[in-house]
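Submission sheet (multi-component)
Chains listed below:
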Amino acid sequence: MNADWLLQNSPALIIAIPLLAAFLMPVIDKIGRRARNAFAIIILVIEEMLVLFLAYDVFGGNIHIYTMGAANPLTTVPAQAAVPIRIVLEVDAMGIFMAIISATVCLAAGIYSLAFIEEEKGKGKYYTLLLLILVGMLGMELTGDMFNLFVFLEVLSIACAALIAYRSNTGDAVEGAFKFLIISSIAALFVLFAIALLYAQYDLLNMAALAHAITYSNLDKIALVLLVAAFAMKCGSVPMHFWTPDAYSVAPASITAILVAASQASLYALFRVCFSLYNVTLNLATIGGALIIFGLLSMFIGVTMALPQKDIKRLMAYHAISQTGYMLLGVGVGLYLLADPEFSTYGIKAMEGGIFHIINHAMYKGLLFLTSGAIFYRLKTRNLNEMGGLGHSMKWTAIFFIIGALAIAGIPPFNGFASKLLIYEAAYKVSPILSIIAMLVSILTLASFVKVFHSAFMGPKIHDVEEVPRSMLAGMAVLTFVIILFGLFPGWVVGNIVHPAAQALAEQAAYIQAVIGG
Amino acid sequence: MIYSIPFYTVVILILVGLYAMIFKRNLIKMAIGLTIVESAVNLFLVTLGYREGGVAPIYTNLPSGISIPEGMVLPVPQALTLTSIVIGVAILALMLSLSMMIYRHYGTLDSRKVRRLKE
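Outcome: structure written.
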């Protein structure tokens, strides 16, 4: 097995390995606890390495195409039917960028879970579903086929819903899962309907081929509305945000961290549809304006709803909505400015900000959810009023929490600052008010995390608890490492990782040519 | 005109399903609403796949007088429908089992009473 072979087949392997491993898990689980844990971690590490390996090549400027069952996406049987009907995996910089997020968050959550769910039942099924979530996310991010996107979206929804209800001995976990399932399945049916509308006109499912053929007819507009609505619903943007706090707060903390990445997979699908599928045919300023409005509403409503919360995870979930707003704002401003050739460099800057914020958010919000899980692990409560003085005994958790809180508030040495600054700068070109609102939201975010820190970690020692087990600390440390790394070298990250991803989204022609021209 | 009837049916079914999901309070009825929407979308896919006078895509040697791709039905919509049905069954099963658990915890399936999360 040489490196070239591995590189060529890695898109398929990245999806196939966890899929097979997921269904092997119940068998391995029979062997014993150690075998199960080791197997899960080994698979997650292999995934991370494969994704990074592929990423190294993709960020070098190549778009990888993997056609299922043929050498070339255009090969068909019979040969006269010149329609690319095969399932194609198309990996460009944006796709692999999202795959890095998914794999990293899943790895951290997997390590964290080792101790975190030790006392629960059904651990074999837990890891099976965790790997299936990973499959769903990676599938959505790497695929180049509309229907395949739908299938992986559903795999993701089913696995997520089942894991949200993991603590099914409490009623609220099941309630949150039911809500999540209803929302996701309706969204997925919208997506399927939109796909059918596109197929009806062009007889195509391949994204690149569709993008090539698309004419922006009335049916296309309806399909676009359905797709945008469905993915915005899944990524938890206001006004379709109501499932987020419910589902995020009841899921086990490790799963909540993954749910953040799962929402971002939907966000990715939204961007993919807007940029790669419709791009040139779109009225850029209108869609950009719509995304800006979605973004502003999410930012502001999310943070104001977060301030009065007493449940620590519910509070963080509202912040997740607010942070999703930043990404929508960044990319919306990007779309808006790209419409005007004079400002297109600022458009790219804005998109870089929005996309950089996606990875930053996944890291620090994942970390914050994991710390809230650590508190829950020791105190068995999510209510802020019942906490206090944890800083005395849970020093590492407190440090991780501070790092996460400072990063989310956009304080300079951490990664949140870098992406927020890019968004402020570019949004200023559209209207100074946008930047002012964005900064205001940042301040409110800081305020609410100061509140959480004070009520959870400060004060006299009232709970006699110990620090959480080492595997949970290790899981948090993985994310902290990335946060600090990105915070210290934002220039390198933007130049080598984020810029190619933004460029890949903005340049639709390269995406199409990779399939049609190749 | 007659060929448009399936499309009207699709629209009506989707509206009925959405109505059930939004206005019905019983969790089982919401699941039924979801299934109706799903059937409507499946019907839409199958309708798209119909081609008048087309032959089934099972011939390796085509009957004379049939050209590709005009005379042959592309089997993609049928494949999509099958996949979507399978996914639908999984979703429905999960949804019903969740409603079962909700009934165990709350003693009711009325969505107005299942709101422990809203305090």
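Remark: Chain B touches chain A through 35 residues (CB under 8 Å).
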